[in-house]
Amino acid sequence: MTRPRLFSGPEPLAPKVPEITAMFWLIKIITTGMGEAMSDFLGQQSVPAAGAIGIFGIWFGLRLQFRATEYRAPVYWFCVWMVAIFGTMVSDGLRDGAGMSYSVATVIFSIVTAAVFVRWYRSEKTLSIHSIVTRRREVFYWSAVLATFALGTASGDWTAIQLKLGFFPSALLFGGIIIIPGLLWWRGKLNPIAAFWAAYIVTRPLGASFADWFGKPHDATGLGLGDGVASGLMLIVFFALVAWVTARKNDIQEPGEHWHLPHPHLPHGAGLRAQPAEG
C-alpha cells in the first residue's frame, strides 16, 4: 500500500518529540490557549476562511514535522500550534454545525482518544514519547495529540459553559486536576507514561479555559480583552519561549543506557534509538 504523501519522507534518525521539562509544559499550555483563542478569533472574522486556514495549517505543520528526521523545536511547536487551532475547530464545528452538546462531544472525543491509545499500544507495545523514532509511531503520536486537543476543547467548554462554572473557576479546576497525575507519579503510584498522558490531556482544557477567561466578554465570565488581543499576547510569549529552547537546545532527548530496540515486529533497523523502559 502506498503511504499517503503527508506521511512520506525519511524515517526518523532520533526521537521526534522534545524532552519533558518544565518548559515543555509551559509552552504546551500556552499553545493550547493560543489555539483556542485564535480559532475563535478566526471564526468571528469568517468561518470559511477560518476553516481554510485550519485545514491548510495542520496539513503544512504535519508535512514539515514528518519530513524532519529529528526533533526541531520550531517545526515541532509550529505543528502543535496548528493542531491546537484545528482541534478547536473540529470540536466547535460539531457543536455549532451539528448542534451537539458539550457533554456529548466530551464523551465522543474521550472514546476517540481512548481508541487511538489502544490501537497505538496494540501495534507498538508502548506509548512512551521517547519511542517516537519510526514513521508509524509518529502517526500514532500526532493522532493522539489531535484527539486530546479536541477532547480538551469540548471538556473545557462543558465545565465552563454547560455546567456554568465560568472560565476562571474551570481553569482552577483543571489546574487542580493536572497536579494529581504528577503527585501519583512522584509517590510511585502511577506509571510515568500514564502520568504523562493524563497530564497532557488536561493541559488542553486548562490552557483553553485561561484563554477564554482572558478573551471572552464580561457577560460570559471573561475579562473582555477580546480573542484577538488574547491571541496576540500569547503568540508573543510563544515565540519567545520557542526561540529560547531553540537557542538553548536543552530540550533535545539524548540517548542513554536505558534505551532499547523497538518491538521486534517492526522492520529491521527501524528506530535504532528506541524507547527507554520508562517515561
From TrEMBL:
Keywords recorded for this protein, A-Z: Membrane, Transmembrane, Transmembrane helix
- Keyword Hydrolase in the entry? The reply is no
Quote any Pfam family the record assigns: DUF347
InterPro entries per the record?
Answer: DUF347
* Superkingdom classification of source: Bacteria
Q: Where are the transmembrane segments?
A: 41-62, 74-94, 100-118, 139-161, 167-186, 193-211, 223-245
Q: What is this protein called?
A: Membrane-anchored protein
Which species does the entry assign this protein to? Paraconexibacter antarcticus
